[in-house]
Design goal:
Structural class: mainly alpha
Largest sheet: none
Shape: flat
Mean pLDDT: 90
Number of helices: 4
Low-confidence stretches: none
Strand content: under 5%
């Protein structure tokens, strides 16, 4: 890794640590988890096969849906986006996130059979 890339990464990490709240860090950790989970599921399907194809699709769609819901929650919780989400409080956004997640996971389980 070159010195320029190290300095850019160091500046990004310093800025991220200084300007990001704990709530947004948790959202970012969930986003990374769901993204890695999708990649592992996709790699597993390509290497081993997708015999129960409904299970593969249900798992992949559930992960992608949770990824999208978590990105939406992070957007609504970020202080920089407060002018766009004036009517939404963080509590109502989290409640929407939980309800949509439960509905999505029930749908995925139903789809798997």
């Amino acid at each position: 890794m070159s010195n320029d890339a190290k300095s850019i990464f160091g500046a990004f990490k310093k800025s991220y640590d200084a300007n990001t709240s704990q709530t947004l860090r948790v959202c970012d950790a969930f986003i990374v988890f769901f993204l890695l989970n999708c990649l592992v599921l996709f790699a597993y399907c390509n290497i081993v096969g997708s015999f129960p194809f409904n299970a593969y699709l249900g798992g992949l769609f559930a992960n992608l849906g949770m990824l999208i819901f978590t990105v939406s929650l992070r957007m609504q919780a970020a202080p920089a986006n407060k002018p766009q989400f004036r009517e939404c409080t963080i509590q109502s956004s989290f409640c929407d996130y939980c309800l949509c997640s439960i509905l999505l996971l029930f749908t995925a389980v139903h789809f798997m059979g």
